[in-house]
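Box 3.1 A note on notation
Throughout this textbook, protein chains are presented in two layers. The first layer is the amino acid sequence; the second is a token string describing backbone geometry. Keep the layers aligned when reading.
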Amino acid sequence: MAKTLRTKSDYTIKTGSGASGSNQVIFDSKTTRVKGDLVVDGTNTVVNSTTLSIDDPQIVLARNNSGTDVDAGIVINRSGQSGYQADNNVAFYWNEGDNVFKAVATTSNGSTTTITDTALANIRAASPVDDNDVATKSYVGSVAASTIQIAGDDSSVITLGGSSDTLQLLGGTNISNTTVVGPDSITFNLNRDLNGIDSISTDRSNQDLLLTANGTGSVVIEDVLTFSGAASTPTATAVTKLYNKTAAGGGTGVFFINSAVKSGTEDELISKSKATALAIALG
């Protein structure tokens, strides 16, 4: 026979000294239904059911959080398991200190406000379909390989596609000493002919441009060498400097200066006609 107990005010069932005691209230029935709100004020709530089903579309964790560094998430008990991170639990949680979500192996059991990471765990996902989706390793590999294109001087384009295509830089005839300087920087040293170069300049103010031949070789100029007018006479040093100024007594306008010649006073190269006239004049 169904029975109803009705009171006009609060109704308390208390065993022994209540919450501070050790006595229990046990409901022994197939189903215990609470039709109003259920508030649990204890420090530990244990659910021993085999299947947990919740209607709420959102679950709020750390509801009364007032701290500045409280980690919150789901900890999965896997103590005693063998294999990957044996005897560790795993967790997917918000790390407040790092300001990121983490999937980790952990020795934490959910009883503290800080998750201790012992190793990062893998997360497996489907290939992304939206620009904001998490990218998978296979997706990144396939997209990167299929979109790398190398164009040559003849406008032909080589496209790298698929996991078997490889971009390889070989030394020898054209490229030598390829050096990886950083995670996204490669230096190429060319050891043969340079063609199609219109100009060579230094990138630092007042920096010399040095052309050096190997061993006993010489720097050879096989075309017209043009000198621009010097704004002023350069400073004499132990090397010979050749430059252009307004022609003077030598009739060439090509001057040189060297600290070991004429005490570093500039002089002009003499032309053939000037030299001939001078020779005739001097007999």
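Residues 137-147 form the longest helix (11 residues). The chain has a mean pLDDT of 83.
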